[in-house]
Amino acid sequence: MPSAMPTETVETARPGAGASGFVCTCLQITERELLGTLSHPDIHTLRDLRRAIGAGDGCTACHPVLQRYLDAICSAR
């Protein structure tokens, strides 16, 4: 894994929120599930992620976190 891999969840990005371990709390997408999806070479954008696992389809608070994961993974390919 690249050293620039994000290590935050939505909760750590939002002050005062609990630590659930989800990168998308609305759809309860874990980092493990996200990384598994990002391992597919056809996932390049937030839209691709939303279509594949639904991450980011709720309140959209996770979009910045998801984008950081996308940037880190896609630049390492």
Record the SSE blueprint:
Layout: H1 10-13, E1 22-24, E2 29-30, H2 31-38, H3 46-53, H4 63-76
Antiparallel strand pairs: 1-2
List keywords for this structure.
globular; 77 residues; two-stranded antiparallel ribbon; mainly alpha; Arc Repressor Mutant, subunit A
Explain how this protein is built.
Helices cover 44% and strands 6% of the residues. The chain has 77 residues and is mainly alpha-helical. Strand 1 and strand 2 form a beta hairpin. The relative contact order is 0.24. The model is unreliable at 10-18 (pLDDT under 50).
Number of helices: 4
How many angstroms separate the termini? Answer: 10 Å
Going by CATH, what is the homologous superfamily?
A: BFD-like [2Fe-2S]-binding domain
The domain count comes to: 1
* Net shape: globular
**Helix share of residues?**
40-55%
Strand content: 5-15%
Ranges with pLDDT <50 over ≥5 residues?
Answer: 10-18
> Describe the biggest sheet?
2 strands, antiparallel
The top-level CATH class is Mainly Alpha
Strand line-up in the sheet with most strands? 1-2
Mean pLDDT: 81
**Count of extended strands:** 2
Task: Output the helix-strand order.
Answer: HEEHHH
CATH topology: Arc Repressor Mutant, subunit A
